Amino acid sequence: MFNRLRNTIVRFMAGRYGTDHLNRFLMGTYLALWVLSSCFARTRLGWPLSLLATATAVVLLWRTLSRNIPARQAENEKFLRRWTPTKDWLRRQWTRLRDVRRCRYRRCPGCGTWLRLPIKRGRRTVTCNRCRAQFRTFFL
Ligand SMILES: [Zn+2]
User: Fold this and answer.
1) I want to staple 60 with a disulfide (CB 3.0 to 4.6 A). Which of 16, 26, 38, 138 is the partner?
2) What is the mean predicted confidence (pLDDT) over 62-84?
3) Which residues contact 97 (CB under 8 A, 6 or more apart)?
4) CA 134 to ligand 1 centroid distance, Å
């Protein structure tokens, strides 16, 4: 029974695109929009959010079932070129927020590296442990 259902699905998906990073991102967006639209269901934002969620789901389904695999792969690559730096930036912000009581982050003017520094209040001179450049900084 389950085997027959599985075979049917496998046969249906043969030659179709399936999933990738962009589709997982669209799935997350869809779920977030769906939750938001239920939260704002009784306000003016309710139906535009639910429309947006439905549109996202349609695009997700269309990409998953698409037979034009090279075009979908190109879209995914384009998406990753933009998403990867954004994701890294978000992760850095999260780390900074998590460490706000313990240390501060300063960018080295010499090599551009982010330095994680213990909090010592007032003006101080910092030495970059990568390029050995020294610079003045200030902690509140
Ligand atoms: Zn440096």
Assistant:
1) 26
2) 95
3) none
4) 8
